[in-house]
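Pasting as-is:
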Amino acid sequence: MIGIDKVDQLVDRVRERQQPIPLACAGPEDAESLEALRLAADTGLIKPLAVGRKQAIITCARTLGISLDGFEFEDVPEQSKVAECTTASVREGRALAMMKGHLPTKQVIRAILNHQTGLRGDGMLSHVALFHAPPSGKCVVVTDAGVNIRPTLSQKIEIIRNAAEVLRRLGVRKPKVAMLAAIEHVNVTAMPATLEAKLIERMSDAGLLGELIAQGPLALDDAVSPDVARSKGLAGPVAGQADIVVAPEIETANAIYKALTCFAGLEGASIIWGATAPVVVPGRADTARMKFLSIALACAMIEN
């Protein structure tokens, strides 16, 4: 279990706790992936396994001046088989985590979900992003910005459980979950998501969601800012102190994610959770630094 207040603390906490873990990267033929892998290897987080066109990876690294010392390779000449070979390396125990390099996200997700050769877990996959939230002075999870487009009520419950498990492994024993909407009351006709938010709150109150506390509907500022919650007269165990903010659909979550990185300039870390191993699936615009922090988050999920 790792306790952190800021995302960049992940690196030292993971390094203090465990030996470098083997991580398989699918097609690291781009600068940001190679830089992130190099940094993660140099800081003692991982032992990188580069899966894909070996000569293309070596050529890319040489062009960028990035050393591949300590890297292992699995040469896969056919691009269409790279994701499948990467999941196989995890399934066979040669790696404990996986990362997407210069491959389409759909191809990687399809390989993970393959019934015969993938990394399917008992539940569903969801995207879990971790950011430092200055108003509350702690890390907050934003979900789901990358996998589930328009989740149903039951799917939202799975998304909540995935995010809660990630935070428990970071030391948050009973995460506080905010179900986001534009308003703080139920309006079924205009905003159906407010009803689902309230239903999830009631389920949490009844103890049906396990060791977490959910409240909703809440606007984003209500969820993370104690000052805003006070000014609006909002009571409840989550208002102003959320550990997890759950968006009603992918558009909202994705916009929050990109607003935090592009407008606010915050560094975040994100993984796909719900497979049999943590998976780093960075966005195309994510920097090498964010990919490195996402690797650290994936490593933090592996329990000794």
